[in-house]
Design a protein that fits this description.
CATH class: Alpha Beta
Number of helices: 3
Number of domains: 1
Mean pLDDT: 93
Low-confidence stretches: none
Distance between the termini: 21 Å
Shape: globular
Largest sheet: 3 strands, mixed
Number of strands: 3
Strand order of the largest sheet: 1-2-3
Strand content: 25-35%
Structural class: alpha+beta
Radius of gyration: 12 Å
CATH architecture: 2-Layer Sandwich
CATH superfamily: K homology (KH) domain
């Protein structure tokens, strides 16, 4: 599933080579840490955080059938 997040992020940024995703699982929670270039933070977050919320919604929808909780953190 981290491939999906990577693909979405690379489509939105100017520096796709600097996109990285780190996945960790703790019990019933799957956490993704999305890292992009500092110049691309605004493009990932979007106006009023709408793109970030859309990314989180898509990732949560992918994990609905597994019954796991999904967290997507966007870091520099």
């Amino acid at each position: 599933m981290s491939e999906l997040l990577t693909c979405m992020a690379k489509a939105l940024v100017n520096n796709p080579d600097e996109v990285s995703v780190k996945k960790t699982e703790r019990g019933n929670t799957v956490a993704f840490e999305l890292s992009v270039a500092p110049d691309d933070m605004g493009k990932i977050i979007g106006k009023n955080g709408k793109r970030a919320q859309a990314i989180r919604s898509i990732m949560k929808a992918k994990y609905v059938k597994t019954g796991k909780r999904v967290v997507v953190d966007i870091v520099e």
